[in-house]
Amino acid sequence: GMEETTGGVKAYANEGLVDLESIKALASSMNLALAVNLIEEENWNQTWESNFDPVVIPGKIQVRAHFHEPLDTVQHQILITPKMSFGTGHHPTTKMMMLAMLEIDFKGKRVIDFGTGTGILSILAEKLGAIHIEAIDNDDWSIENTNENILANNCTNINLKKADTIEPINKVDIVLANINLNVISAAINQIVGICKLQTQVLFSGFLPTDYAQMEKLLTLHKFINIKAIEKNNWLCIQCTYNA
Hints:
The protein is α/β, with parallel strands linked by helices. Helix content is 30%, strand content 29%. The strands form 3 sheets. A 7-stranded mixed β-sheet has the order 8-7-6-9-10-12-11, with helices on both faces. A hairpin with a 2-residue loop joins β11 and β12. The longest helix has 13 residues, at 140-152. The two termini are 38 Å apart. The relative contact order is 0.11.
């Protein structure tokens, strides 16, 4: 795992599976400071619980864990235990995706969630009225975690699948893809393959500096009404397929 910090990058790996000498040589050749620390075992679940606050979109959504008190002032409750998967609603990309989803009519719609993470967007899609959601991820932790979250939220319209690619299933009405620029670029033809005229698409997981490339890519593949919102230096793009 990689984590960008102010003035540097933290990289996490299993002890013994990294060639530290090569990394040290690379850092030295690039005049980069390098520090290596061994993280001791601890109760990560307890640590997470002590630091995980609910995410609230006033009047609309509360994303919480089982130990949080539910709010009676929101329309939708989403129970999430993230474990080692991405998607609790705290990250700007996830929050922007949820906000954008609230502006779309999901009632009776078919949806694909490419890179589902914890399943948070698929769960919200069902709560907003979607009748069928294909939730796809290529990570074993995500599949296990999403399945737990689907059960915790009593969802019945989500079909969870482990896969690296999008199969040419029936056309969908809405595409959700909170991943990154490289994955979206590599999968754009697959995404087009499941779109029909007026399919609405939400992309996130990239930076404002990626926008020009994304706009060019989407225009080339017949997407229109391209609109971007920004939060904390992250972008979410909404567009419509028109071919």
